[in-house]
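User: For a benchmark we're assembling, each entry needs the component sequences followed by a predicted structure for the full assembly. Here are entry 17's components. Please fill in the structure.
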Amino acid sequence: MSWDKVFNFTDYSELLPLVHNSLLAGLILGIVGGLISTFVVMRDLPFAVHGISELSFAGASGFLLLGLNVVAGSLVGSLGAAILIGLLGVRARDRNSWIGVLMPFGLGLGVLFLALYEGRAANKFGLLTGQIVAIDTPALSWLAVISVIVVVVMLLIWRPLSFASTDPEVAQARGIPLGPLSLLFMVLLGLVVAMSVQVVGALLVLSIVVTPGAAAVRLASTTAGATVLSILFATVSMIGGILLALGSSVPISPYVTTISFAIYLACRLIAAARGRSRVF
Amino acid sequence: MSDIEDGAQLVRLSGAALGFDAGEPLWEALDLTVRPGEFVAVLGANGSGKTTLLRCLLGMQPLSAGTISVLGKSPTAARREVGYVPQQRRFDPLTPVRARDLVGYGYDGHQWGLPVLSRRQRRERIDAALAEVGATRFADAPASRLSGGQQQLLRIAQALACDPRLLLCDEPLLSLDLHHQREVCAVVDRRRRDHDTGVVFVTHEINPVLPYADRVLYLAGGRFTIGPVDEVMTSQTLTRLYGSPVDVLKVRGQLVVVGIPDHPVHHSSSEPHDEPHDEPHDEAPESAGPS
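Assistant: Structure for entry 17:
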C-alpha cells in the first residue's frame, strides 16, 4: 500500500474550503457529543449508545431504500431505540440484555434494506463508517437545530440529572422523578446518536459519544469540569480527524477514532501518574 | 384541616398498615408521632418493615390503611423540608463529584433550570452544612476517594443542606466502624438539639443510638412496641413482642439481645423482601459492642 492514500497534504489549501461544512458539522458534533458523553459514562450507558446507533442505521437504510430522507430515517430508528431502552430497561442488568436482544435485530434489518437497495454503493457504506464530505447545507442546518435543542434541554435538567446520575436513591427521596428524567435523557441521547451516525457512521458513534467522557472522568473532579474536558476531547477528535483525512482517500472515521483513543490513553496515563487510579 | 396539634407534630401516623399483595402486613395499627427535637430510633430484625416505614414517610410508598402526615402535610408535599440519609454505599471511583458538590445536591440538586440564586448564598449554605458535620477539611476532595465514615458524614451534611425540620436516617451506621458509628450519632444528636429537628433513625445497631434515643419503635413480625428505651429494651417486652423467649442482657454497659427467632411465630409464611440489604447474620445478637 502507499502511505499517500492515508496522509497526503498536497493541494491542502485548495481542498480546505471544500470541507467548510464538514468542519462546522464536526464542531457541532464535538460539542453535543462531548456534552452528553460525561453523563453516558456516569449513567453506565455505553452499551445503550451502541444499541441505539445500530437501530439508527436500520432506520436510515430503511428510509434510503424507500427513497426518503436518510437523516429522518436515522432519527426515527434512533429515537425508537432510545425510548424502548429507556422504557424497558430500567435496571442495568435488564437493560443490557434487552439491548443485546434489540441490537442484532436492528442490524439485521439494516443489512436487509441495504441488500435490497440498488442505488449508489457509497450511500450504503457511508451509513456504517461515515460520510462527512456528503454534509450539505440543509443537513448542516438540521444538525444545528437538533444541537441547540439538546444543549438547551441539557442545561435545564443539569442539576437533577447530575444528582440522579451520582446518587439515584437520594435523588428519588428528594422528589426527582427518576423514570421520566431517565427517559428524557435517552431521547436526547437518541438525537445525538442520530446526528453522529450521519457523520462518523453507526459503527463508530462510540468514539464521539463514549470515549471523550470516559477519558474526561479520569482527570476531572467535578461533573462540570469533566463535561468541559469531554467537549474539548470530542471536538479535537472530530476537527483533527477531518483535517487529517482531507488529502487522503480513506473515510474520516479512522482518523477520528484514533485521535479519540489516543486521548483516552493519555488521560489514563496522566491519571495514573497523579496516583488517582491505576492504568490497568 | 391542620389543627394546632397537627402542626406541633412532625410526623403523625395513625392506624397505619402496610402490606403487599401476598401475605400478612409488615405492620398494622401503627400509631406514631414525632415531636420537634425528638430522636426516635426504629429497631427490629431484617424484613420487619423499618425501611418501608421510611419510604412511607418520604412519600415513596403508599400505606395500605390508615393516615400519614409529615410536617402537617402529605409526605410528598413535605419532601423539600425533610432530610434523608441513606445507608452507606460507596461511590464509583470514577464519579466526577467533590465532597462539596454532593452537599450541594442536597441544597439545590432537585431544581430544574439554571441557578438563579446567588452563588455566594449557595456556597455559604454548603460550607455551613459541611462545618456542622465536621467535614470542612475534606470539602474539596473527590467524594469517591473518601472513607466510608467520611462519606456518611457528607450524606448527613447533604441532608442538612436544605435546613430540614425532620431528618430520616435509613441504617446510616451500616458497615461503619464503631468510632464512625458514634460520630454519626453524635452529629445527628447535636443537630436535633441545636435546631429542634425531629429524627427518625432506622438502625440495626442498638448501642450507638442508646445514649440519644428518646423513644424506641421496635418492629417485629407484624407487631410493634413504642416507648422509652428502658421500657422497650427489656427481656419481658421483647419476649412478648416476638412471641418466644428473648433475653436482653447488659454486658459491660452494652445491650445485647439474644434469642431473636429466625421467623417470628405469627409471621412465618412468606419472607418480606422490602429491605434491600440482605445481611447474613440475621439471627445474631443485635449488637456486638466493642470487644
